[in-house]
Amino acid sequence: MISLMINAKPFTSRVFLPCLLTSLVCLGLPGRGDEISEKGREVMKTHQSAVVTIQLVVKSKWSQPGRGAQSSEFKKDVTGAVVDPSGLTVVSLADIDPSEMYEGEDRGGFKLETELGEMKILMEDGSEVPTEVVLRDKDLDLAFMRPKAKPATPMAAVDLANSGSAQLLDQVITINRLGQAANRAFAASIERICGIIQKPRLFYLPDSTMTASTLGCPAFTMDGKTLGIFVLRSLKSHGSAAQERGNATTVILPAEAVLKAAKQAPEASEESKEEKK
After folding, report:
1. What is the pTM of this model?
2. CATH architecture, domain defined by 48-268
3. Secondary structure of the chain: what % helix, strand, coil (to 5)?
4. So what's the pLDDT on residue 235?
5. b/e map 164-197, b = 16+ CB within 10 Å
6. Mind listing the pLDDT tens digit for each residue in 231-249?
7. What's the rounded Cα separation, in Å, for the pair 37 and 16?
8. Where are the alpha helices (DSSP H) in the chain?
9. I need a surface site. Which of 124, 126, 184, 238 has the fewest CB within 10 A?
10. How far apart are CA 138 and CA 35, in angstroms?
C-alpha cells in the first residue's frame, strides 16, 4: 500500500498523476529485472559448455639490481573460451604470461621471464585435455591453444561468426568459470557498457562494478550473439609501477577481431604430432 500526504491537503491532479506514474514505474521494475534474468539464464544455458578452465604450470624467473635472481613455479587456473569444435581455445595472453606485457620496457633493471609448463583443459566430466599455445598476439592480448590430440568428439564452441554489437549503457551477459574453491562452477554476470573505444581499434569498456567477470570470459548480447572476449588493454610506460597499472584496463575485444586472429592459428606443433603417433 502506498500512502502520501502533502501538507495535509487533498491531492490535486498535478500531484496525484506524477506520483501515480512514479509508483507504476517502480512497481514495473521487478518485471524488468525478471526479464533480464531469464534472458541471462538462457544465454548461459546455450553457451556455458564452451567456457572452460585451463590449468597451467607457470615457471617464473625475475631479477633486480642488488637483489640477485629468484625463481618460482606454481599452478594457475585461467578462463578460456573454446572457439572451434576442434578445441581451439582463446585466453588472455596477459593472464597466462604477464612477462609479455612488459617486454621492451625500462623497469629500473627489473627483469621478468616466464615459461609455460604443462597445460590442460579441465572438462566438465572431469577429464583433462593436454593442450599447447599455438599463437600469441600481443597487440590484442590473445593467446590461442590447441589440444595436442584431436578430441574424440567435437567440443562445444562459441560462434564468433554469430557476432553482435553493443551501444553505450547496454547490458551484456558474461560467463566465467570460478576457482577450485568454488568447484570451478559456472558463473554469469550482467555487465553494462560504460564506454566505447573507437581508436586505434574498437573496444567495449565494461563499468567498474565488481562482478564475476575475469580475463578470458566471453561476453554476449541479450539476444545471445557473441560480443567479444575480455582482455587487458595496456599502454607502454616508462613511469612508476603505479603509473603502469593506471595504463592498463580490462576491455571487451569484439568477436570479429578475435575471429580474424583465430583464423591465423596454426595446427598442433610437429612435436605434438610425434607424441600422438
Report:
1. 0.79
2. Beta Barrel (2.40)
3. 25, 40, 35
4. 66
5. bebeeebebbbbbbbeeeeebebbbbbbebeebe
6. 999 765 544 444 444 478 9
7. 33
8. 13-47, 93-96, 241-246, 255-262, 270-276
9. 126
10. 39
